[in-house]
Structure formats: structure tokens, C-alpha cells
Write a structure and sequence with these properties.
Layout: H1 2-8, H2 10-28, H3 36-39, H4 42-49, H5 71-86, H6 92-121, H7 124-136, H8 140-144, H9 149-152, H10 154-169, H11 176-190, H12 195-207, H13 211-228, H14 231-235, H15 241-252, H16 264-272, H17 277-287, H18 293-308, H19 320-332, H20 339-363, H21 370-380, E1 388-391, E2 413-415, H22 421-427, E3 439-443, H23 448-459, E4 463-469, H24 473-481, E5 490-495
Parallel strand pairs: 1-2, 1-3
Antiparallel strand pairs: 3-5, 4-5
Length: 497
């Protein structure tokens, strides 16, 4: 019965399955994955809505210099949080359910556009396969409900190419290239590196000698990108100030965070798409360069730039994935296989879907950075919460707290190797007694009881244990595999009166 329904309504079935998994992720995949998808979007947007500036991005808090971040996507969250504040939704976890659910529905545009684009460039069979991959690929449902600009920019990028396809198929469609340019401008307003897709699209139009259409597309792009960056005129009295600051920062810090080899993303894509299917898609991507040039050129320019640039993080390559899947699927269909090879390919796809199904169920229900989020959320529920201290005296660097979940934007104090408990005590020496933070958070189990005793002696205050925020099992696994992932328990103590 289900198979019969799928035969009658294949796209509807794919969209339903993709949305169902994304809604599961919206419910259960709480927390945040990386620093940027929370601290550069959620903390900034909510703090602006509350009349605060968490990251000191506003010009009157940072000396009048641009921060190097686009205000567009953050601004949309500012408006959303303003609305949620207005209707009385104060609970941080409740707000994030809304955010993740909105992203779940929005991300379904990627599945629909993947099908539409692939169907126009190939067959129904290839379009359905590509759509299934973007709907159910193991990491995509979870990524789709996160605040990763690398994935949020994908729907307008795909829509831009779709409008180019429509305009090329109809000589009377004079607005198609302008709309395509505007969509590319929106994508770049979300993620600045989308510029390289536009560069590849320009090469495609140049190859086809469509100069006038290319200029029309560029005009649409410039208009939309200018709109997404219009806050620069308000804050800095000049256009594109944040974009220029972003370029300068990344050129200056090209090797500050990571300096990985040029072939890093070949391995990343090959692993994310699960071999040997990923190998089929790589072969197909190369094979389809002429048939699917509209897909290959923009994505290849994007891929080559990121392969050349030293700072490589896995999330940076996410916008490439849908284009790779579509072109790879179209190209693989062009490869002629013998009967023996076809059988091996069929078994490979079965292996892929079994492994992918297990992985997507795990990743889509994983609570990431659980201990940090739950520690802050515990403070939100405490009526006597005024402020807190983070104790990481065993570390060289400070701890970043996701204060969004605490519901307050007070000053977060941190004890680490360069700032001792004695310095904290001296800071509060001449301040009112009730201003001293009531909650002390000890991160990680390393010498934790010794550190607790040291804090009590150094501060002259007695502590009582109230809560332990545990990491999820997946957080613990990541921390075990790489201790740089600071996914450790958080012990919360209250200062006795």
C-alpha cells in the first residue's frame, strides 16, 4: 500500500519523510553544534531584542569598527525574538523549539528545488534519487534545524539556479535572470562565501555568451545584496562595511584556526556521502561537467576556493553538497555498467541506505552541548539567580557561556589561569554583598573537588551543591575522541548566605 502511494506521489512522499525527520530533529536535537551556530546568531539576536549587545558588535560598543558579520540573518532572529518577547514566550527552550521548527520547514525548499532542478536537467529517476539524498542524508535533518549560515544559504542558492533554468527555457522570461541575481544576493547576505557560487555562475553565462543576461543577473544580485547589508549605512555611514571587514579578518587570520591540506574537502565529501556511493557521485560529478555545467561550474569554483584557503572546517563545505549530489546523480546515470558492476552498485546503495538510516536516527535525536545548555537553563529556573562564576582554573582560556538559556545578560565571570579566585574576591571587595554571584559553575571533572575547596578558601565563601549538568552520550563520545571538544559535566554550587 505504501509503495503504491509512493508510485503515485513520489515527490510528496519524499517531502513528507524529509519533513518528518526534520521535525524529529527540531524536537530532540536540542543545543547547538558549534560555536558559530549559537553565539553568532542566537546570542546576538536575542540580546539585541532585549536591549543588550552580547558580542559587542554595535558600533557604540566596539569603537565604531565593523565586526565582520552580516546583520541580515541575525536581524531576522532579532525580529523573531522581539515578536516572541511581545507574545510572552520567555522560556529559552521554548523559543528554540520555534526557531528549529521554522528552520525545518524552510529547509524543505532545498529538497523540492533539488528535485525540480534535477528533473529539468535529467530524468524523473535521477531527480527522485537526488531528492531522497537531500531529504534523508544522515547529517542533513539535524543541520537543517541548526542556525548554520552554511546551510541556511542553500535554498536561495538553489532557487537562483532554478530561475536561470526557467529563463533559459523561455525566451520571453526576461525577469528570470534578475530574480536569479536577487536570490544569489540574498544567499550572499546570509553567507558571504556564496560569492564564489555567483562567480561560477558568471563563468557559465560567459561560456554561453549570454553577456546581457549576465549583466541583468548581476544587477539583481547587487540590489539584493545591498538590501541585506543596508544596516551598514545606518551604523557606519558607508556600504558593505561588514563585508570588507570580514574579508580583511579572514585574510589576516587565514591560518589562525586551522591550516589543513588542499585535499581535506575531498576526504570530507567522500566520507560524508558514505563510500562507495560517494565514489559513484564523484565519478558522476566529473562525468556531468558538460551536461550539468550550470551545477558544476558554480559549485566547483566554490569548492576550489575552499580547498585552496588554509582555514578548513567541515561546515564550510556544506553549500557544496546539494550541487554535488545533483550533478553526481546526473553524471552517474551516464556511466554504462556491465551486469556484474550493476549488481555491485545495487548492493552498494543498499549498504548506503542501511548505514545512513542508522546514522540519521542517531544524529537527528542527539542533544549537542547538553551540559552547557542545561547548566544555563538550570539558572533560568532559579528565582534567586543574579549572576554566576565559571571556574576553569585548570585551563589557559576562558569559558564561553550560552547565556541565552539563562534568560539574563549579566556579566559572566570566569576564573582561569590568568584570572584567579583571589582577583575575583578583590574585585568584589568594595561592592555590595548582594552583588556577589550566587552560583558557581565548575566545568569538567579534572581535580574538581580540589578546585571547589580552593575556591572556598580563596573567596572566603561556603558552597552547597545543587545540580550536575551531564553531557549527552554523544557529547561524551566526541570529548573522548578529541578532548578539544569541551563537552564535560558542569557542577553547579550555590553560595551559602
Amino acid at each position: 500500500m505504501l509503495y503504491d502511494y509512493y508510485r503515485l506521489h513520489p515527490l510528496r512522499t519524499i517531502l513528507f519523510c524529509g519533513l518528518l525527520l526534520r521535525l524529529v530533529a527540531a524536537l530532540f536535537s536540542k543545543g547547538f553544534g558549534m560555536h558559530d551556530d549559537h553565539f553568532l546568531v542566537i546570542e546576538a539576536g536575542q540580546s539585541f531584542a532585549d536591549g543588550f549587545d552580547y558580542n559587542n558588535w554595535l558600533p557604540w560598543n566596539n569603537g565604531g569598527e565593523p565586526s565582520g558579520h552580516s546583520w541580515f540573518y541575525v536581524g531576522l532572529h532579532f525580529l523573531l525574538f522581539k515578536f516572541l518577547n511581545f507574545i510572552g514566550l520567555d522560556d529559552p527552550q521554548g523559543k528554540m523549539y520555534v526557531v528549529r521548527t521554522l528552520h525545518a520547514f524552510y529547509s524543505m525548499l532545498s529538497v523540492w528545488l533539488t528535485y525540480k532542478i534535477t528533473a529539468r536537467m535529467g530524468s524523473e529517476k535521477e531527480a527522485l534519487r537526488a531528492a531522497w539524498l537531500i531529504a534523508l542524508l544522515w547529517f542533513i535533518p539535524s543541520v537543517s534545524v541548526r542556525n548554520l549560515v552554511e546551510w541556511v544559504c542553500v535554498p536561495p542558492l538553489l532557487a537562483s539556479l532554478y530561475f536561470v533554468l526557467l529563463a533559459e527555457a523561455d525566451e520571453r522570461n526576461k525577469r528570470g535572470f534578475f530574480i536569479a541575481g536577487m536570490l544569489a544576493g540574498v544567499a550572499m547576505g546570509i553567507r558571504f562565501q556564496s560569492l564564489f557560487f555567483l562567480g561560477g555562475l558568471g563563468l557559465y553565462l560567459l561560456y554561453r555568451k549570454e553577456i546581457v543576461r549576465g549583466l541583468v543577473l548581476f544587477a539583481g544580485f547587487l540590489l539584493a545584496f545591498f538590501f541585506t547589508q543596508s544596516a551598514d549605512l545606518i551604523f557606519y555611514k558607508r556600504p558593505f562595511a561588514e563585508f570588507i571587514a570580514y574579508v580583511d579578518y579572514n585574510l589576516l587570520h587565514a591560518t589562525t584556526y586551522f591550516d589543513r591540506p588542499w585535499y581535506q574537502y575531498l576526504l570530507t565529501v567522500g566520507g560524508m556521502l558514505i563510500p562507495p556511493v560517494s565514489i559513484f557521485l564523484i565519478i558522476g560529478y566529473v562525468k556531468a561537467w558538460k551536461k550539468a555545467m550550470l551545477l558544476v561550474l558554480p559549485s566547483l569554483v566554490f569548492f576550489l576556493f575552499h580547498s585552496w584557503f588554509p582555514n578548513k572546517q567541515e561546515r564550510f563545505i556544506l553549500p557544496f553538497i546539494p550541487f554535488f549530489v545533483m550533478a553526481g546523480t546526473l553524471g552517474w546515470a551516464m556511466v554504462r555498467n556491465s551486469k556484474g558492476v550493476e549488481k555491485a552498485v545495487a548492493y552498494s546503495w543498499r549498504f548506503f541506505w542501511v548505514l545512513n538510516t542508522l546514522a540519521v536516527l542517531v544524529v537527528s535525536t542527539t542533544y549537542s552541548k547538553r551540559s552547557m545548555v542545561e547548566a544555563m537553563y538550570f539558572l533560568y529556573s532559579r528565582p534567586d539567580f543574579n549572576n554566576f562564576v565559571m571556574e576553569v582554573s585548570h585551563r589557559d582560556s576562558q569559558q564561553w557561556p550560552p547565556q541565552f538559556y539563562s534568560g539574563k545578560w549579566n556579566k559572566a565571570y570566569c576564573i582561569y589561569k590568568e584570572y584567579t579566585v583571589q582577583q575575583l574576591k578583590a574585585y568584589f571587595q568594595d561592592k555590595p554583598e548582594n552583588s556577589f554571584p550566587r552560583y558557581i559553575l565548575f566545568f569538567q571533572e579534572t581535580d574538581v573537588w580540589r578546585r571547589i575547596a580552593t575556591f572556598q578558601r580563596g573567596s572566603g565563601r561556603q558552597l552547597e551543591y545543587v545540580f550536575k549538568a551531564e553531557p549527552s552520550w554523544f557529547d561524551s563520545l566526541l570529548h573522548w575522541l578529541n578532548p578539544r571538544n569541551k563537552n564535560e559535566p558542569v557542577y553547579i554550587f550555590r553560595v551559602k548566605k
